[in-house]
Amino acid sequence: MSDTLLQVRDLAVTFETRRGRVQAVSGVDLSVRAGEIVGLVGESGSGKSVTLRALTRLLHANARISGQVIWRGEDVLALPENRLRAIRGREIAMIFQEPMTALNPVLSIGRQIDENLVAHGSLDQAGRRRRALELLDMVGIASAAQRLENFPHEFSGGQRQRAMIAIALAAEPRLLLADEPTTALDVTIQDQILKLLMNLSTGLGMAMVLVTHDLGVVAQSCDRVCVMYAGRVVERGSVEQVFGRPRHAYTDALLRTMPGFGPSSHTEGAARARLVPIEGQPPRLDRPILGCAFAPRCTHASAQCEVRPEMVDDGSGHEAACFAADALVAV
Amino acid sequence: MNRLGMVGLRLLQILPTLVLIGVVAFVLVRLLPGDPVSNMLGDHATDATIARLQAQMGLDQPIWVQFLLFVRHAVQGDFGDSIAYHVPVARLIAERLPVTITLAALATLIAIGLAVPLAFISAVNADRWPDYLIRAVFQVGLSSPIFYVGLLLLTVFAAALRWFPVGGYGEGIGDHLYHLFLPAVALALSFSAVIMRSLRASILAVLTAEFVDFARSKGLSQRIILLRHVLRNALISTVTLIGLHMGSLLGGAVITESVFAVPGVGRLMVESIFARDYTVIQALTMALAVVVSLTFLATDLVQMWLDPRAAK
Ligand SMILES: Nc1ncnc2c1ncn2[C@@H]1O[C@H](COP(=O)(O)OP(=O)(O)O)[C@@H](O)[C@H]1O
Ligand SMILES: [Mg+2]
Description:
The complex is a heterodimer of chains A (331) and B (312).
Chain A: E1 4-17, E2 20-33, E3 37-41, H1 48-55, E4 63-71, E5 74-75, H2 81-87, E6 92-95, H3 99-102, H4 109-120, H5 125-138, H6 144-147, H7 157-168, E7 175-179, H8 187-204, E8 207-212, H9 215-221, E9 224-229, E10 232-238, H10 239-244, H11 249-256, E11 312-313, E12 319-320, H12 325-330
Parallel strand pairs in A: 3-8, 3-9, 6-7, 7-8
Antiparallel strand pairs in A: 1-2, 1-4, 4-5, 9-10, 10-12, 11-12
Chain B: H1 3-31, H2 36-41, H3 47-56, H4 63-74, H5 89-124, H6 129-143, H7 146-160, H8 173-207, H9 210-217, H10 222-259, H11 265-275, H12 278-306
Helix pairs in contact in B: 1-12, 5-6, 5-8, 5-10, 5-12, 6-8, 7-8, 7-10, 8-10, 9-10, 10-11, 10-12, 11-12
Bound molecules: adenosine-5'-diphosphate and magnesium ion.
């Protein structure tokens, strides 16, 4: 596809830890087209954050990343440092769950915006200030001129998240990676921030990968969705496809844990349903997983699940890695 | 409260501290065995001579009378004359204290100058050979007695290589600094080991902070991330340590000044204690208390400058 910005192929991340090797992410394929919002959902620990950080090599030294992350024709995983730095922030930016820890406590918000502009642009000081004011305005922070001088602890939670968005968007990235941007916020503010992100995405023509464990958020905002389980993408398709006719037993179980969040209710009015855990625990990642990782918790499991199922496309671009895919849809 | 108000309040708080330390010093010196007069006159003096001189100096009065007299003069800025040197104590201290302060400040600068870059190299290469090497060298620095380091520096850089003078203080500011360089290095070595250990640990902690990842995700250079984002946060806890330790540098200065024949208050203090020079010991103790209090205040100001959250 010509308007594909990001094409991830067979991404895997292992961590070397004192207690052995942790296979946090394996075999992840993901594509993002210009301007679209892709949701990445899954239980806590399923590898969403690690996947997101791997895309621009933000993981620490104990991580081994393999596979390909093709960004507009270049493999980010193979780029030299200086090329990578030019992409980070300028083309692919990222925001985090907890702005209190993601913002530097000793630098003013203005400074944290400014250094982004210095790194990626040629504006003079006055120009950068004008741009910084414009950015605060854009994310809905009032009295921008005073707020630029303020430090993170002088903002409320929602304002801090807005400030972080302003910083991330300073250099006009084409893709924003958002790691649970609303999870740490009050419910009323969650909605405002989500709306803000959606408006910015549309207004700026900026694509977004939105990580969340809130299916309501995905239903409300995303074009397509990837469901992760134990470090793998197990189902992928448009939001209508995945939430309307789930083809993976895990997705199906997820949706069933939420009353009123069935095939017909995935649109605007969908309940802001939280993900209620399914019986049992996700598997440990520090030993090889044979077969389908979800099988031990799955009501549809059968003998063939001892071999890991491949991702299968049903012909409409709706893919799932589940032997029970057809049975689920038939019900 | 604003910064100016805070500084004013802290300066006021020094006063009660000073009074307390003055009282303690006044009493303690008089509890020492021996007295200045017998010290001055030696073993052959008759009791009558000693008594006469004591009376002349007011030392025969009850201690509380002596204290009230001392206070009466002190509030007028007169801290008495040195018993041994026969000059006003204030003049003696004004001559000697700047020497020691310069020595301590130079030692602090050298210690920071050594510790900061090496802590960085150590932390960034944590648990690889540069880290092991730096930590091993500093471990030696930390465990070497100051007088030993001092003698070693003297032998090598002053006596053998003749790069530096073997002692004294020289004339003029440049010459002063030149004379104080080796003693400052001797004083700085274990101090820099303390700073380096603390800073290395803080840097390692800060490197795992999420705001460092956010800074990296913005495409900032490694240099900016380390100097602007990491160092500043890591220094916050280390600055407190540096401030606290500068107080104990004065203790180390006593030894260093003796080894390098530097005319500072460290040596003056030791000489005065031997001579039971009460007036000098009292006044010097109070002067040092002021210096230490001001150091702590300066530390807090630096801390506030580094960390906007502390300014509240
Ligand atoms: N630095 C690390 N070292 C070892 N294991 C890690 C590290 N970071 C993440 N993991 C493991 O990788 C798995 C995926 O984590 P993560 O991507 O953060 O999950 P989530 O989907 O909740 O964002 C978890 O099991 C986590 O314990
Ligand atoms: Mg996460």
